[in-house]
Specification:
Elements lengths: L5 E3 L3 H6 L11 E6 L6 E6 L3 H20 L2 H17 L1 H12 L3 H26 L2 E3 L8 E9 L2 E5 L7 H12 L3 E5 L5 H14 L6 E3 L4 H8 L5 E5 L2 H12 L5 E4 L4 E5 L5 H13 L9 E7 L3 H13 L19 H14 L3 E4 L13 E4 L6 H4 L6 E7 L2 H9 L8 E3 L4 H7 L6 E2 L20 E2 L4 H6 L2 E9 L14 H15 L9
Parallel strand pairs: 6-7, 6-9, 7-8, 9-10, 11-12, 11-16, 12-15, 14-15, 16-17
Antiparallel strand pairs: 1-2, 2-3, 4-5, 5-19, 10-18, 13-14
The structure holds NADPH dihydro-nicotinamide-adenine-dinucleotide phosphate.
Length: 520
């Protein structure tokens, strides 16, 4: 990622004041976060050094000991109070999101709203998902009682992106906290103010223990967190940076979750509601200026409805308004270097015979990109194979839905996707190689706290959200307790050959007779 204007601080106190004491003190260097709509400075924050990251992680370990010793109810109470702060001040947080990313106020509010809902679910369900539960000991160990529970790992390092600076990192942060961990959060250099606001608001409800800290800075600060003494890294960002994070974490055998990029496809079947499907394609591809990891980038449409679908998409795409005024649906490109990526994908497609039905090369300005719809795009061009991360769509005609599935799956990514079909929606969704698929809607899975979120292939691994997301920040703890002395003691040198014979008889009786495995 390119850096913003890193520069020496005027005084260390100024640098510290930006984080409100939720981070270690004393950074001498700062950087600016800029409003991408106009280049104004939105805030100035410390560049945290490796030493400061180490200090934050050490403090977090102490805080984690306190936080994990609380009961689920006690943690739930504190998380509930934080939820209240977020809900009451969502306008304030939304304003920072708007200033740092340029996205419309409504979109900024939406991601805060969804994060609050996830927080509420995680806090409410942590005990049910993670608390001790009895399991069957099995016939051979019938004298034992067995329980499994999921214990907090300790300190989680969360490294976040800028495109959804609240919703995305909170998908890790709130599940990690609800599971009993402390968190050290490195926000993107484009959205440090959001990270600081989150840590400061948490510190209002938990003032005496640094359970959630923020370390602002550039890529190096993230690298320092990845190689620090955290117990797990939850990384969200590009696939390339994910590989660096994983390599750094490997040195300490630190486990990682990688939530990386995507190239999600939408499938439109011949019986689909075309107005709804077009609405979903246009919103899924162009909202947030296309800077959505689970945004729609490719559309595969049954040949029988292709022309009607394209007409409908064009009708809707023409009414998408790009800008920074109150009426705009779509804001600027947040990370300036992404403009060149978007242009290279569009130019490559056009040079190879694609047609832009709306937008095109001229649609890419200095800060804003107008909606662009490309057809006749070769399947091996950049606009189809690489993550574009702009308000662009490629639309391709397919013979049938088998071809649509094959083309959708012909990617190294596997994050989300959507299917529009009245009869075959769920069947087609199951055949798409990705972590999440919405049927007859778009990105709906991300808004449901009960569903896991994450990808396969170059989109990463591990899951946030839902029960899987809670377990991701824990380790399974198995406990067996002997209730009565066993008739045959297997785990002792006193075991006799007679016992071995009886065990062999028993196991043959249990498993020798049939090749099928009965369900219990
Ligand atoms: P980047 O990979 O550039 O950065 C992600 C985070 O990693 C930032 O905080 C960045 O800091 C930090 N970082 C940079 N270098 C290193 C390093 N060497 N070690 C550790 N951390 C480092 O991604 P973007 O911020 O540009 O985010 C966009 C990407 O995120 C897209 O590919 C998108 O698809 C993906 N994404 C995936 C999601 C998912 O859930 N699967 C959700 C949202 C986005 P800094 O900003 O200071 O460079």
């Amino acid at each position: 990622m390119t850096t913003t204007s890193a520069k020496p601080a005027t005084t260390p106190e100024e640098a510290v004041s930006a984080t409100g004491g939720t981070s270690p003190r004393g950074s001498a260097e700062t950087f600016d976060s800029l409003n991408p709509a106009n280049g104004d400075v939105a805030g100035t924050y410390p560049v945290r050094s490796a030493e400061e990251v180490r200090t934050a992680v050490a403090r977090a370990h102490t805080a984690a000991a306190w936080w994990s010793a609380l009961s689920y109810d006690e943690r739930g109470e504190l998380l509930g109070r934080w939820k209240g702060v977020l809900a009451r001040r969502m306008g304030q947080l939304g304003q920072i999101v708007h200033d740092e990313t340029g996205k419309p106020h409504g979109d900024a509010q939406l991601e805060v709203v969804l994060a609050i809902d996830h927080l509420a679910w995680a806090a409410r369900h942590a005990e049910k998902v993670l608390g001790p539960r009895r399991v069957r000991p099995g016939l051979l160990m019938a004298n034992q009682a067995a329980t499994v529970e999921y214990k907090a790992l300790g300190v989680i390092g969360v490294i976040g992106p800028w495109n959804y600076p609240v919703f995305t990192p909170m998908g890790s942060i709130v599940y990690a906290l609800a599971a009993g961990n402390a968190v050290v959060f490195k926000p993107s250099e484009y959205t440090p103010g959001v990270g600081v606001w989150l840590a400061e608001s948490f510190a209002e409800v938990v003032p005496d223990h640094p359970v959630l800290q923020v370390v602002t800075g550039l890529g190096k600060t993230g690298a320092a967190l990845a190689s620090s003494a955290v117990d797990k890294i939850a990384f969200t960002g590009s696939t390339d940076t994910g590989k660096l994070v994983m390599a750094a974490a490997a040195a300490n055998l630190t486990p990682v979750i990688i939530e990386a990029g995507g190239k999600d496809a939408m499938l439109v079947d011949e019986d689909a509601d075309l107005v709804d499907a077009a609405d979903a394609a246009v919103w899924g591809g162009m909202s947030n200026a296309g800077q959505t990891c689970v945004g729609v980038e490719r559309v595969y449409v049954h040949e029988r409805v292709y022309d009607d679908f394209v007409d409908e998409v064009m009708k809707q795409a023409r009414s998408v308004r790009v800008g920074s005024d109150a009426e705009a649906n779509v804001g600027p490109i947040t990370m300036p270097s992404q403009l060149a990526v978007i242009k290279s994908h569009v130019d490559d497609a056009l040079a190879r015979g694609a047609r832009a039905l709306i937008g095109g090369s001229d649609a890419i300005g200095k800060r804003f990109v107008q909606p662009t719809v490309l057809v006749d795009v070769p399947e091996d061009s950049l606009a189809v194979t690489e993550e574009t991360f702009g308000p662009t769509l490629t639309i391709a005609k397919v013979r049938d839905m088998d071809e649509a599935v094959d083309r959708a799956n012909a990617t190294r990514y596997g994050l989300g996707g959507a299917v529009f079909s009245k009869k075959r929606g769920v069947e087609l969704a199951r055949r798409i190689r990705s972590g999440m698929t919405s049927v007859n809607s778009v990105i709906a899975f991300a808004a449901m706290p009960t569903l896991p979120f994450g990808g396969v292939g170059d989109s990463g691994f591990g899951r946030i959200h839902g029960p899987d997301g809670l377990k991701e920040f824990t380790y399974a703890k198995a406990i067996s307790r002997q209730r009565i002395r066993p008739p045959m003691l297997l785990t002792s040198f006193t075991r006799t050959t007679k016992t071995d014979g009886k065990v062999a008889q028993l196991i043959t009786l249990m498993h020798g007779g049939s090749s099928t495995i009965p369900k219990r």
